[in-house]
């Protein structure tokens, strides 16, 4: 569907090691993923004559939700009903499906509350409050501290802030770094873990056009899904929800997107962009290509194997197309020239002020030198891991968990602080099914990759393979392990270090052997790269603030942001792309491809074609600024009414990771009218349509 898919987010983030800041001017273009504490009030007033009130902003924030397995959504009724994308829901659909009931393929609708299906490991968050804790975090760094000591002090203070907040409020508490260390904010979330599936269409309707149409427009997708949030066994009363506008938004109308963009690189230095272009992207794309080869071979074993592999293939194909498009942007000489020019102009402003130059002037050169140093170890750090296996991931986490919790909270590694343990246990104790044949095939394939990339004499390879083949090792590790059993995982956590040290499970034994290597690698990176980059990035952030104040937005951090823009088509392939598509176009596209492959419509679309208003808008585009993580975000009008749901960006928007182009960048959304038309006339879900329309 789009780079907003969760698996894509994980892949994009696996070695996102570097962060800094380059000033990007956000003028009157429809640009920016703005934090709710610093909304684009000036831009909205000057360009659209609209000023959001604090009440409006609070309502939109509290009606927006974050899906912790990737994506965004919104409350659309007072009864805890949440709208998101089918492709955001796909992971949970897969987990509650079986060989006999494949909800990804057939879709699902619960006509009554009793029929709603509980998701095995889905957490959704609502952002309750935000508090600026910059002074407290930065003050933890004392004069004379080394960079490594400074990083340790920051981490300790952040852990303390999060623990204090959790104890005081009971809310999920995360300290978020904005502007790459320029600011730190404490975000408090109400979290819900009893989330139930209400409705999802067939994948073929949601993903019409398949990978061929992914990141393109015009589009004709019914990429939607509905969940309901429960607490204490009952649907919550969602006081803040978005009222439905079935008419939708007209051409050139102002609209907003409230969601959780995952990550962007618009504030990276030029040296960081070069690293992305020359090192990171080629390596990740090579890895994805080989992972797909493994999965394609696995799915040939049978129909059930094809079902099990589908979600992984979907995510990886999506990631491949997204990253290929982003790399194309980095290879664009004009884009890179503009980024270089912007950086040079910013540095000149700093250099012209002796005080600023003394405080901040060396930061860019420090970052360039540090990245070069880190690049030499990038491949080693990436491939010295057990990839593609949930069971292997459980083993590594359990071994580290029981060791870290013995330490004082401030001294633990990130992810293992007191404020984070509930989330970690929620992941570890997920009852989602694990397929050992898939685990074995994937682990064997990724170990083969590591062998090829690192060589047989690498320390990691010697420990894992010990002269044996990846296939032999993967077979013994997976089939000999009981880590697919939730109760076994619980027993190890409850038994603590003693139980884990005694455990003879082959994956646990291997994780115990590898943990020292991983810790050594992490320590090197922390002391030689992360600590240096953190300090240099903070300098550039401070330089930006003294020159420009808060007139620029921070890079995306998978936290709630507000984007704005107009419903508008754009020039494409020598012609124009319309601002909306219709059901007429959907049927035309299916017939133009003779109803084959990715362009097959579910039979219900043909059986009930005569009941539909074929002029109904299907998808539409706007200039709203989005990126991965925005999938499922509500599109709303000035009255905070829902007019659509984001599900993709056009192919031209992929370079938007690095720079925004209002002329061509477009966010693609499902139209509110199509959702209602489909619920009432295609899926016999009139009761659900009544709920969201308030009837």
How would you explain this protein's 3D organization?
- This protein has 695 residues and is an alpha+beta fold.
- The chain is built from 26 helices and 21 strands.
- Helix 14 (363-375) packs antiparallel against helix 22 and helix 16 packs across helix 22 (506-548).
- It starts with 5 loop residues before the first helix and ends with a helix.
- Mean pLDDT is 95; it is low at 1-27.
Our Rg estimate from Cα atoms comes to 25 Å
The amount of beta strand, in percent, is 5-15%
- Straight-line distance between termini: 32 Å
Q: Kindly state the mean pLDDT as a whole number?
A: 95
Low-pLDDT regions:
1-27
Largest beta-sheet details: 11 strands, antiparallel
Helix run count: 26
Total strands: 21
Output the structural class: alpha+beta
Q: State the helicity in percent bands.
A: 40-55%
Inertia-based shape: globular
Which terms summarize this structure?
695 residues, alpha+beta, 8-stranded mixed sheet, 48% helix, 15% strand, globular, disordered N terminus
Topology:
Elements: H1 6-13, H2 41-48, H3 54-63, E1 64-67, E2 72-75, E3 81-84, H4 86-96, H5 103-106, E4 108-109, E5 117-118, E6 124-132, H6 134-139, H7 147-169, E7 172-178, E8 183-192, E9 194-200, H8 203-206, H9 210-213, E10 225-231, E11 234-235, E12 243-244, E13 254-259, H10 270-299, H11 303-330, H12 333-351, H13 354-360, H14 363-375, H15 378-383, H16 390-404, H17 421-428, H18 436-454, H19 459-465, H20 470-479, H21 486-502, H22 506-548, E14 561-566, E15 570-572, E16 575-577, E17 580-582, H23 583-592, H24 603-607, E18 617-622, E19 634-636, E20 641-649, E21 667-671, H25 672-681, H26 686-693
Parallel strand pairs: 12-20
Antiparallel strand pairs: 1-2, 1-6, 2-3, 3-10, 4-9, 5-9, 6-8, 7-8, 9-10, 10-11, 13-14, 13-19, 15-16, 17-18, 18-21, 19-20, 20-21
Helix pairs in contact: 1-11, 7-22, 10-11, 10-14, 10-18, 14-22, 16-21, 16-22, 18-20, 19-22, 25-26
